[in-house]
Amino acid sequence: MSSVTANVLYQRRRRTNFTWFYFLFPSIAIMLVFFIYPILLTFLYSFTNLALTGEAAKELKFIGFDNYVHMWEDPTVRISIWNTLVFLMGSAVIGQQVLGFIIALLMKHKNRTFRRVIGTVVLAGWVTPEIVCALCLYSFFGDEGTLNMILEFFGISAVTWLYTVPMLTIILANIWHGTAFSMLVFQAALDDVPNEIEEAAVVDGASRWQILYRIVLPYIKQTITTNAMLVTLQTLGVFGLIYAMTGGGPGTSTTTLPIFMYNQAFVNYQLGYGTAISLLLLIMGVVLSLFYIRSVKE
Amino acid sequence: MNAKQRKIIYRIMPYAILTFIGICFLLPLLWVLVSSLDTNAMQSLKMPHKVTANNYIDVVSSRPNQRAFGIGLLMSLGQALLVVVIGLLAAYPLSRYQLKYKKSFMLTILFMTSLPITAVMVPVYQLFLSLKLYDNIFGVILFYVASAMPYGIWMLKNFMDSVPNDMEEAAWVDGASVFAGIRKVVAPLMIPGICTVAIFTFSGSWGNFFVPYILLNTPEKFPASLKLYQFFGQYGMVDYGKLAAFSVLYAIPSVMLYILSQRFMSKGFGMQGGTKG
Amino acid sequence: MVRSKKRWMIITSALLCIALLIAGCSSKGNNSEASSPPASNSPSAEPSQSAEPSPSASPSETTPAEKTTITITYRDDGRGPEGTLYKWIEEVKASYPNKNVEIKQTPIQASEGDYFAKIALALKSPDTAPDIVTEDTFMINSDASAGYLTPMDDRVSGWEDWTNGSFIEALKKGVTASDGKVYGVPYNTDSRGLWYNKQIFKQAGLPEDWHPKNWDEVLQAARTVKEKVKNVVPIWMNMGKATGEATSMQTYEMLLYGTGERLYDDASGKWIVKSQGILDALNFVSTVNKEKLGPPLSKVLNGQAGNTSSREYLPQGKLAISLDGSWIAGNYLSNGAAPWPEYKDVLGFTAFPTNKGQDPGAITLAGGWALSIPANAKHKDEAWDFIKYALNKDNTKKLILASGNITVRADVGKDPEYTAMPFNEISTDFLQKAEFRPAQDKYPEVSTQIQTMVESVASGTSPENAAKKYAQDVTRIVGKDKIVEK
């Protein structure tokens, strides 16, 4: 590069170094107003008696840690945390990850048309918007739904899935909706595993399981942790799917934290208490993402 | 079991398992697809007596439905456009300059991508009341933009990192301004990344009914997602055929975008974004 | 030094820009507020398929500039322009003498449970508050304490109809909040009891003129139906959270009050969180579900349950007994949601007995709806004038006849057209023993706990555990000093 152009670049760089802020400004401003400020408000409101109606709606009062004390005493909070964890483990960590990985692994080196057909079918669940997913799975698990029809065909009597095993139905629904993401990620990761290593292992007489355990899995370890966290965090906020399918019921059997937050804030009209639960949800997100950032850094 | 049989089983098993999984994934879709073609659809799956497109015609020709779809498109397209433009602007200095707090900024951004927006809806609702944005479509778009911003910046920055500096510098030598450099050189090279971000944000908000559910009040302003939720959630599934047809129509933009984007997608899935920063 | 200056500059300019942004947004909000009425002129554009001519264009006698637009918000149960209230408002509007006032419908489409939250949200801000709102009387206390409603004492005391006894005195209690002020004008009331299908009863060998004396007889009848008639749901009660107040009032409170117990002890000012009555009521729910006398949970636990039973199961002969409100007959009128001309012969309506047949023998709860003026309404005087007109004798009668409710006006009650309606006499008769829900601002929150409790019992939780949780939740809501155990 000639000294003239370098000089020009230098001057430009200097000028642009002053202007970097203006580049960042719109995004920072909009995030501050609509994202960070609400998070701060969440924190603030969780110490108030903010309510939608009733005496408390008239004047906002700071009530210290009352909401948190209530949260501590409220058995439904414990149930919701438990449900959230079950839902996360069942549908995200185990369900989507394992199933996505199995599909990706089995699809490797298969007939192209076959790959495409299966891939498309799995992707259909992912591309389908949440609320349509809820409808599909609702009708699938319904009393007179497709699943019961199939079972009856085999002589098995109908089960009221949404009421007998509600948690299982929403877990399966979320697996149906989300597996494609993990599948795509693992397909990309598996393609990156150099064939030579595998071939060398085969020459050394390693079995399929050994290759998988000793070579493939360690090679894509980082992808697994990254994907696990991304999927978990996406699942943490799932509201629409559960709300539309079971509404958190029957009873509290599918009430996860987002549903519980919604119920407290907009059904019981206790916005303050609702935000305290939101904060719990946020903290779960923070802890999980710190874990994520750390594991990515390693 | 001898070695040969074993080998055959190993060959066939994957196909059998995959086919089974494929069928399991297909079954829930069946009801919606079949019922949408049947004007007498029931809650249970059955063969239609007569396959018609009447449900679709009814749904498409209804003014309120057209309106809901229009509003949904306006919201999601508006959001995707704003996220890409504002995100590109933000990504540029983050990708090109040595900034003092870049690392912590990027970590904050990464952290923000993971926060469940469901959790902040109550304060957002309060905020919207005080900003007089409640029941305002543009307010909802702004909120959508904000909630997708961290993800947009993160992805776009990583995509921009892979665009080499030299071509941009060459453009500067030719007298292009920084903006022109971004517009004419950097952005075209990032088309796959831009599309990935646009598609992700679009389908995120297109499928979301919770945000408009909280922030909008007038039925005339409801986007398709909310309309469908009401259709399904509250008034009972009385007219199953129309409900199914509405659902299929509603899923189409997401499906189309996906097909459109397929060639860009693989790039977005390499997880390469996760390791840099 | 230089660095800190630069940082300071950045911070200030950031704040400045945020301020600008906010200002920009809010002015945008205002603009769209100002410009929205002409844009969404067609009344409740939602489900109306046809492009109706915009109302502002039709009246020619006045210039549009002088017009005041008042908005009226009510719950649209999904029927849109077919809805009773929609049609009634249109009718009243057309005959409204003051042509300088434009009445605009701004219905809220929501399930019953969501409606009250949506209303509260709308009433909060002057930008979204309508000029008139329909309030379920149980919400009046709560919304009044929140400062959402305008006290109407001065206005009603100057209204002849209100003071000359046209309105039934006892029902004014429903619109009076705990501060003693009136916050709405009631337009209907209701009572609750057992609807039953005489044809199914005949098939099952049960009396067609049925007067159960205690809960056992109700359950026994249901068991007989289950045994003798196939493919019929023996008894339906709303039992889900999604059906909101219907679960609290039509099911739980009818049961609880039937045991002689109450929700709230007026004398001590405390909520009763533990009693045999609560357990007895829950045991009834539990028995119905354990013996499979009720509807499948998938039908009864969703927000649509009320309509499913009254508009589908009952008229289609798939339901024998329904514990429900007097108004469901309104569905069967020729202009109703599920026209059913034979209903007066097929259906019977009988009082719900106390649990052991103790005094007073039967029980009912009365509720009802009222028109209120939000505190944030912009045109309170115009709204009041319209309310006076809309709820005069003639217009009340039209609404009552169309909706199948019970009237709150004594003069309408004597009207031959009204008394000729089947069941009106019976359900009005029930009202004499009617109980009301506690006029407490915490009631709506307690009510959602009731719904949770009933739903959990319906889906298998033991009454003891559900009652225990209810006690905890109510304690949290009302405070430890406001509860009593019996």
Query: Radius of gyration of chain B in whole Å, from Cα?
Result: 24 Å
Would you give the CATH topology of chain B?
MetI-like fold
Q: What structural class do helix, strand and pairing data of chain B support?
A: mainly alpha
CATH superfamily of chain B: MetI-like
Note poorly predicted spans of chain B. Answer: 267-277
What is the string of helix and strand elements of chain A? HHHHHHHHHHHHHHH
Overall pLDDT metric of chain B = 83
Shape, per Cα inertia axes of chain B: globular
Output the helix-strand order of chain B: HHHHHHHHHHHHH
Largest interface: A-B, 103 and 86 residues
Shape of chain A: globular
- Unreliable sequence segments of chain A: none
Mean pLDDT of chain A: 85
Total strands of chain B: the figure is: 0
The biggest sheet of chain A, with number of strands, parallel, antiparallel or mixed sense and barrel status, is:
none
The CATH C-level name of chain B is Mainly Alpha
Topology:
The complex is a heterotrimer of chains A (298), B (277) and C (486).
Chain A: H1 3-45, H2 55-58, H3 66-73, H4 75-107, H5 112-127, H6 130-141, H7 146-153, H8 161-164, H9 166-192, H10 195-203, H11 208-219, H12 221-236, H13 240-245, H14 257-267, H15 271-297
Chain B: H1 3-35, H2 54-61, H3 63-96, H4 102-113, H5 121-130, H6 137-161, H7 165-173, H8 178-189, H9 191-206, H10 210-215, H11 224-233, H12 240-268, H13 272-275
Helix pairs in contact in B: 1-12, 2-12, 3-6, 3-9, 4-6, 6-9, 7-8, 9-12, 11-12
Chain C: H1 2-39, E1 68-73, E2 75-76, H2 84-95, E3 101-105, E4 108-109, H3 112-124, E5 132-136, H4 137-145, H5 153-157, H6 160-163, E6 185-190, E7 192-197, H7 198-203, H8 215-228, E8 233-236, H9 245-258, E9 264-265, E10 270-274, H10 276-290, H11 297-300, H12 305-313, E11 319-325, H13 343-346, E12 347-350, E13 352-353, E14 362-365, E15 367-372, H14 380-390, H15 393-403, H16 410-413, H17 416-419, H18 424-430, E16 434-435, H19 443-458, H20 463-478, E17 483-485
Parallel strand pairs in C: 1-3, 1-5, 2-4, 8-11, 10-17, 14-16
Antiparallel strand pairs in C: 5-15, 6-15, 7-11, 7-12, 9-10, 13-14
